[in-house]
Amino acid sequence: MFVELFTILAPVIICALIGYIWTRRGHSFDVEHVTLLVTYIGTPCLVFTTLTNVEIDLDTFSEMAIATATTLTLFTVLGAMVLRLFAVNLQNFLPPMVWANMGNMGLPLCLFAFGPEGLALAITYFSVNLVLLFSFGVAFSAGAFSLKNFLCMPFVYAVGAALAFTLSDTQVPRWLASTTDLLGGLTIPLMLIMLGVSLATLRITGLKSTMALSALRLGMGFVVGWGVAYAFGFEGVARGVLILQASMPVAVYNYLFAMQYNRASDEVAGLIVVSTIMSFITLPLLLWYVL
């Protein structure tokens, strides 16, 4: 079991370390442009090529999508209750409690733990999260909803195109399959390297409260993921993917939105760092549980 856990975690840790050491040694890394590359090219291609190459029936896809929406609803309700109880600003700190790092960490972990099927289900979880993040999540932080910004996200069309090919049982043209497969291969390594860069550049403020909120995010993620998986009757890969994705630390996207809308960005940055460090401690146990 130790060898299996090490095999899953080693690529994630090594790629993140590359980004961390690269940045700490003073080398430049254009996070803004790499983020745009991953968001607008890499991720849509990865979504398309994974969903069209792995056989997942519509019922399984739909169940995972509904289960994902259920976890987000529970994160919102439970997170709001706890933050209200301790008089913590909801507009600043509820988004980090809801949206976890299901991309940079969740996708590679599910791939290494469960193979292509796990990646396809993880992308389903990831896609639903992004749809709700760039609609309700941004609207909550900004105080207003922008349909234009949401419709500019190419992953929405990548999911639609993949479902169109899959449901119509149409063969993806070879040139398109090869291109999206090649470009999609950029995504996971770049996500992990960016995670390391973020850990090297973001700073921790208010350590006591940051540790408490980080523990809340990780603990709530596991409990909600386990509960929803049980309620939906998930077993095997689907159960493992849902619990893993739900239990991830705070997403880097939360820092970007906190910066953009002036929502306690320094404190949110600390949450990302601390929750990620804590997750590296809990991940072996989490993987042991779901495997």
Write the layout of secondary structure elements.
Elements: H1 2-24, H2 31-53, H3 58-85, H4 90-98, H5 102-142, H6 147-151, H7 154-167, H8 174-184, H9 187-201, H10 207-231, H11 236-246, H12 253-261, H13 265-290
Helix pairs in contact: 1-5, 1-9, 2-7, 2-8, 2-9, 3-4, 3-5, 3-10, 5-9, 5-11, 10-11, 10-13, 12-13
Structure notes:
This protein has 291 residues and is an all-alpha fold. It contains 13 helices and no strands. The termini are close together.
**How many strand units?**
0
Low-confidence stretches: none
Please give the share of residues in helix. Answer: over 70%
Distance between the termini: 9 Å
Number of domain units: 1
CATH classification class? Mainly Alpha
Please tell me how large the radius of gyration is: 18 Å
State the major sheet. Answer: none
Q: Characterize the overall form.
A: globular
Main attributes?
mainly alpha; Na+/H+ antiporter like fold; single chain; 13 helices; 82% helix
In short:
This protein is mainly alpha-helical. Helices cover 82% and strands 0% of the residues.
